[in-house]
Amino acid sequence: RKEASATRHIDCASQGRQLSCLYQTSIMKWVVVFLFVLDTHCMGVANPPSPWSARAYTAADDLFSTFWNSDVNYLQSCVPWQRMPVKLGVEFHHNASIDFLAHQRQSCASLGYWGFARGFNAMAIAATKNKSFVPYVHQMYAAQARLGWERPFYDDLNWMVMALVQSFDATQNTTFLERATSIFTESIMPAWDTSECGGGVWWDAKHTQKATASNAGPIISSMLLYQRALDMNNDLALNKYLSWAEKVYAFWNATMCHANGAVVDHFAVQQQDTLPQCVEVDWSFTYNEGLMLGAAVTLASSHPSASRANRYTSDAIRFATHLTSNQTRHGVLYDACEMQCACCDCQQFKGAAAQALSQALRTGVLDARTHAAVASTLATSRQALWSNAQSVHVVNGTRRTVFGAGWAAPSPCTANAASHISATFALLSALDDVT
Known about the structure:
Number of helices: 15
Order of helices and strands: HHHEEEEHHHHHEHHEEHHEEHHEEH
Strand content: 5-15%
Number of strands: 11
Shape: globular
Strand order of the largest sheet: 3-4-10-11
């Protein structure tokens, strides 16, 4: 076995540092799963974790081992070996030829800031439950630090804030929390504006939109920072975060959310007769309702006033009901845009919805009927994506599982990092199953 291992490593190394790294991360994947199972066995857990726990950790590890490009130290958008695969049964076998690395560099773009932030967040959730993932969290933080943290899109910045707070929870390293606080207080909070559309947080620095992603998302982040300030007895920060979250929530809920729980995507700010006009753009994406659900849940579960918390609970039930009743197909989370194969926005939307639904279960704010509907939607979505969305890629003998965008039915689109991250969030929801 040692000889085979040594030979394999030499073969990989001969094709360059990238392939050697891929081999090493594949070994890490099985170490992570083995240590998780061994740990629960040694603790004498009466009810060992379901197979979904191991699947969730495998998906998180495959995210890194498949899509991490060590040449540029960043997540790339596509499977690096998506070139002339030979399908054998349910597996795709690839031949990593001499021009492997050159092809990878030419054909695979970096995932981009918000996609990276989502992958970072998924990895941090895994690390919160399983410390074997903590080195990945530190590596991803260092990679983004090299490139810088500021971007001209406030929703993108907020996805990063959420990832950083989760990374703090996973590591208790205050560097993550300090960075999250800096981005949020210096860039996102000042983007609140009342001069156009009556209120709302701008989506971009050019002030062309005010979107659910740049309003509901920051409400969640503000309450996450509120909760950490509460833990640290930081009274000054407490009032700042809570009052800001409530202000943004009150405006967006009243202005952009329907009584049935549907959420408008954004205001487009357009110039008409030299005056700006705010035009509602009513696109239907699961992450809009998911973000408003997350905003309502964080407020309901943390608000010091019981009467206000109850109001947010009612809203959470409304958004969760719309998600489970109107944004599913055969009980599975579904976005109509997921069959469009352009990378890498739509493929990530369901992951945000699954994350919010999981949070709603974990906090226990839902009534019994809605709780059951949410648990069913998550379980059905996990089973469907496992059946319909996964493809196994075997590269030089190493198996990688990659998930596509179609959960309710197989998608004609090639799986990419965005679709894999979205599925990873749904699988990670199994770690907090409350039935």
